[in-house]
Amino acid sequence: MSLPLSVAFASNPRTWPVLDGRVKAEGLELTPSVVHPSELFWRQLKYADFDVAEMSFSSLIIAISKGDRRFVGLPIFTTRRFFHSHILVTRASGITRPEDLKGKRVGVTEYQQTGALWTRGALQHEFGVTSADCEWFMERTPDLSHGGATGFQPPEGVVIRRIPVEKNIAGMMLAGELDACVHYRGHASLVNRSGVNLLAEPAIRTLFPDPRAEGVRYFEKTGVFPINHGMVIRREIAERNPWVVINLIKAFNDANKIADRERMEHAEYHIDTGLLPANAKAALTKTIVKHGVVANKKTLELAALHSFEQGLTPRVIALDEVFAPSAMEM
After folding, report:
1. Structure pTM?
2. Residue 118 and residue 133: Cα distance in Å, rounded?
3. If you placed Cys at 179, which of 76, 93, 114, 164 could pair as Cys (CB 3.0 to 4.6 Å)?
4. pLDDT tens across 136-189, in order?
5. Contact yes or no for 57/34 (Cβ under 8 A)
6. Closest CA to 70 of 223, 187, 196, 236
7. 227-234 and 71-80: which strand pairing?
8. Across all residues in the chain, what is the average pLDDT?
9. What percent of the chain has a predicted confidence (pLDDT) above 70?
């Protein structure tokens, strides 16, 4: 008899095979839900709505640092991005380089979210701009935020102001009330108010003229491709049924393989039609997203270090405090 589990994640090609049933987790009967990440993390942190769920890595280690033992981490990593390369600025701000952010008004959907954590880490270590150098404006309200569920307090020496509920980051950027914003997604949801594509606005541009080139530069220097989301399982389930952990990881690894194969099928079609150069195949065959603690140890430890440096956690959280014991060697 299969163990029934509710599982929630954001829909992307690497999780679709689990969602549509092409991949089965051995011994498990999964009931999947697709939920916007911002809403999902809030619901899971506040109400523990699901047995297994995608989760903000930053919010997870903050919760753990405060003694929250409801969840065990699963090293299943669904999204990555070079977050700092997508900082947006207003043309009127006069900001032309990262160092110009010092003293400026910077919007952020939620200060503790992982994309913002990575952005501030890069600003500090690559360009000498610390969190305390900026004046931060946070959009989410305490009752609809990850921080509201984890007891967030502004780190010492950092100025964080709440954006009034009748306003949002997009409107303040366009009105000149903010000079920049980080990790802006422009997707309104249960917990997010901004729903404007700011890059379509003439008054807004990316801080880095070529975000892709900046991402490449950062990766070549650091070897780090930042992780945004992982997954969690209720601790009581993992401790009562330890086998569930590895079976879930295996299922998502299988889904990842399907996503890679389908990506290559699309790439080969375009190569065959002449829309992509033949030498593109070598790059496209490289697996970019890998699950597991071992393959991502450097990146995960750097995220934990950034969290401590930025005053979000009182110490550097060790990975064996985050992930299930059976997952540490995977």
Report:
1. 0.94
2. 16
3. 93
4. 999 999 888 999 999 999 999 999 999 999 999 999 999 999 999 999 988 777
5. no
6. 236
7. antiparallel
8. 93
9. 97
Using alpha carbons only, give the angle 61, 63, 69 rounded to the nearest 5 degrees.
105
- Report which of 91, 114, 103, 311 is spatially closest to residue 207, judged by C-alpha positions: 91
The amino acid that residue 88 corresponds to is: L
User: Is 245 among the domain residues?
Assistant: yes
Same domain, 170 and 234: no
- C-alpha to C-alpha distance for 75 and 236, rounded to whole angstroms: 18
- Cβ-contact 87, 126 below 8 angstroms: no
Distance of CA 132 to the CA centre of its chain: 22
**Residues in contact with 130: Cβ distance below 8 Å, sequence separation at least 6, in sequence order:** 123, 124
How far apart are the C-alpha atoms of 134 and 84, rounded to whole Å? 15
Cα 272 to its chain centre, rounded Å, is 35
Domain count, the chain: 2
Same domain, 162 and 233: no
248-to-29, 53, 172 alpha-carbon distances in Å: 11, 11, 43
Phi-psi region of 225 (alpha: psi -120 to 50; beta: other; left: phi over 0): beta
By C-alpha distance, which of 121, 119, 113 is closest to 146? Answer: 113
Instruction: Say if residue 42 is in the same domain as residue 124.
Output: no
By residue range, what is the domain housing residue 310?
Answer: 3-81+226-259+289-327
313's tokens: 């956690």
The beta strands (E) that lie in 121-236 are given as: 135-138, 159-162, 180-182, 204-206, 227-234
